Amino acid sequence: MKRTVWTFGLIAGAVLSGMMLVTMSLVDQIGFGKGEIIGYTTMVVAFLMAFFGIRSYRDNVLDGTIGFARAFQVGILITAIASLCYVATWEVIYYRMMPDFGAKYAAHMLEKAKADGATQQQLDAQLQEMKKFQELYKNPFVNAAITFVEPFPVGLVITLVCAGILKRKRREPSGRVVAGLSG
User: Fold this and answer.
1) Which region among 5-14, 53-62, 134-143, 146-155 has the lowest average model confidence (pLDDT)?
2) Cβ partners under 8 Å of residue 52, min gap 6
3) Least confidently predicted of 38-42, 114-118, 153-157, 159-163
4) Is the dihedral angle over the CA atoms 133, 136, 142, 143 positive or is it negative?
5) Over the chain, what HEC string results?
6) What pTM, to 2 d.p., does this model score?
7) What is the structure's pLDDT at 181?
């Protein structure tokens, strides 16, 4: 299982990391809104590696049978590896390439709130919240934890769906399903 999980996890991680590098280098041109759309679309595409990883493990290692629990285990490990690649890439981008990201994002959020008709009091309150968040976000552990929570839920949902689709019980030569297999 290790080989399958690492192979497909690193492929998904490379897709996430590559697109993050491209998107973040162009964020001034495309804007934060389009950047988020590209980012989450990329996550869905990258986490499809969980489907291919589960299927590969089922067909090549388990002779075509896999239970939901084992399929979920393979998929969630692929998701975790890809999410960790995403975090590692973001840490490099944030601390080395875009140390002003927090200020730019705060300005974007304030402009968006202003365009949505926020009062000056609401804008001031939001600015104070953003300042607190920026200070908290400077801590690499907090930064990494928050960053991990961005892609992981997407991968979790995709893993659950894929495990459900790909589970397959062993059949006897007569065609009957053998009960009690949960692998």
Assistant:
1) 134-143
2) 8
3) 114-118
4) positive
5) CHHHHHHHHHHHHHHHHHHHHHHHHCHHHHHHHHHHHHHHHHHHHHHCHHHHHHHHHHHHCCCCCECHHHHHHHHHHHHHHHHHHHHHHHHHHHHHHCCCHHHHHHHHHHHHHHHCCCCHHHHHHHHHHHHHHHHHHCCHHHHHHHHHCCCHHHHHHHHHHHHHHHCECCECCCCCECCCCCC
6) 0.83
7) 47
